[in-house]
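lol ok so funny story. i was supposed to be doing the assay writeup but got distracted and ended up predicting the structure for this chain instead. priorities right. anyway since i did it might as well share w the group, maybe its usefull for someone
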Amino acid sequence: MFLSPNPSIQVYKIMVLIAAFFMLLPLPIMQYVGEEGLMAIKSYEMFLSGDWFHTVALGMSFPHPPLWHWPVILISQVIGWEHVDIAIRLVSVISTWLTAGAVAYMAIWLFPKEDSSIGWLAALIYLSLGEVCFWYGWLGYIDACFALFIFSSIATLWRAFEDKSARWLCLALILISIAFLIKNITAYALFFAAGLVLITRLKRWSLLKNPFFIILTCLAMSVPSLWQSFISSGADINTAGSSVDDIIRKFIGFDLFRVLNHWLTYPFIFIFRSLPLALFFIWLWLRHKQRFQWDEPLTTLALILLVCFLPFWISPGGGARYLIPLYGFVALLLTGLLLQLNQLQLKQSIRLIALLLMLKLPYSLLILPYVKDHMPERDIKAVARELIAISHDAPLRTQSDVANGLSIAAYIDVWQQDNAPIHWYNGKEKGVYILAEEETDDFGELVKTWRLRGSLVYLYKQD
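and the output, tada:
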């Protein structure tokens, strides 16, 4: 199953470097997308407060751990807070690069009989996965960084169980604790679900009787409680508890049609967003009756994916973004399957990846900016500039916690760094301008209305 001499390791190296560089293309071009404005606001307000352990947005406590914001703050200090939109995306891109490196290292360990190109091939496959390449690999959300630590922790746990190594186990537990401090306790759910698969496959049930293993695991599991008790004890929001509440909401309040639609379409969405290779393998299987051998590593990878996929599949509120931590295992699985192809099929696979990377160029520089920003009524920056001109030096408040309002506030905050950041309107202040997402008589005089990205944005003046 050796890959050399054609395609060569040099080809893989060049394609990996191109794929990695292309992750940077949308960073300076795109305006805020979705929740990116909220990520920027939290980072900026954390920096202004000098409190690196509690997240605040619009002057209010927010139920997210703080760790993701630390590199954003450091990068923004270097490139300037007016470029915080680039900073939040750089954290995602760097996380994606590091995940590709972890995938490469894991591939070398899982497939030791292959030649030196296997690591580069696995990294290339990860960087070319549709979900990673076109969207969450660069988008300024927490998910790419969350995925890095979840994948690395499970991969390290696999190594710990296989080698019966205390050092690898300690590292795995540290990594999953960092994952919690980046986002929420769902990290532990994925970690222990994958751990159950690994214990079963590797027959390491004796570890459950090992005092050292039990103590270390309990310490890792206690991190959310310790964090709440010693760091967030004075906060108004329970970080772990709010995560549990959010998880519960993913399972309730949905009608039967929504539930059935989710159950039927969710696996296909996951497979489609793993293009191009996942679709190519399905085509080979259907059209050419390609049969794949499922050896020990591939079967374990498939089971880890299935067990970690099931909770999001069952939950009708499980969005596609929650699957980002699984794409590292998808890349490893696809790498193992790719090694079973003949030379012609291998060349076709690499050409498909090359075609995808070529599409990334016009997608990033033309298609995505046009769809998101340059179509009529989509210019968030123009609305933010006009709002500044209208309000002058008067205090500006907000009653908009949707994407448009958050994006406007994020731009104004860093464009007017001499002013206090925009805070949530408490309903009592006078002489302030108020940004709102709904029309109301409670905020005084309606100054102006904008149609922005399919919704209306209102500006009021409360005298």
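Residues 1-5 have pLDDT under 50 and may be disordered. The radius of gyration is 24 Å.
back to the writeup now i swear
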